[in-house]
Design goal:
alpha+beta; five-stranded antiparallel β-sheet; 5 strands; about 20% helix
């Protein structure tokens, strides 16, 4: 169903790791650690400033892949992982893109399930990778039918 999209990626999208967004995100996930929000503690830290929580990249913009569409309902979030080369620093500008890494299917009791592997990448303005996030989205038989119409 999505094999033709494997290897395709979006164009880079500029993002700013904005202080207010980091604060709101940390509060929303129930982790108001001072390294995320207190300027003085951030400046005294080994990072020399505040950093974003590890799952913060979920709220960044990654662009779209031409012709690629997933519905907003009916999908199952199967798995997600984050790998960092270094922390995201509050106030920095980064470039992000998304890429379809794989798609495979398995037969289940409710029909065929599709497994879509999506990778999101964040780089600094020089193009050096900061983080990679990989997610597996499970596409149920009901969603597959809706998409094939």
């Amino acid at each position: 169903m999505f094999q033709s999209f494997i290897g395709k990626r979006s164009v880079h999208v500029e993002n700013c790791v904005e202080r207010g967004a980091v604060r709101k995100f940390a509060e929303a996930i129930g982790d108001p650690h001072p390294i995320y929000m207190d300027k003085d503690i951030g400046q005294r830290s080994r990072f020399g400033g505040n950093i974003a929580p590890p799952t913060f990249p979920r709220v960044l913009e990654y662009g779209t892949i031409e012709g690629f569409y997933l519905p907003n309902v009916g999908l199952i979030h199967g798995e997600q992982s984050f790998q960092y080369e270094r922390p995201l620093k509050v106030g920095e500008n980064i470039r992000c893109y998304t890429e379809i890494k794989d798609y495979y299917e398995r037969n289940g009791s409710g029909g065929t399930l599709g497994f879509l592997v999506i990778e999101d990448v964040g780089e600094d303005v020089q193009g050096k990778r900061i983080f990679t996030s990989q997610a597996i989205v499970i596409i149920t038989e009901a969603v597959r039918k809706r998409l094939s119409k």
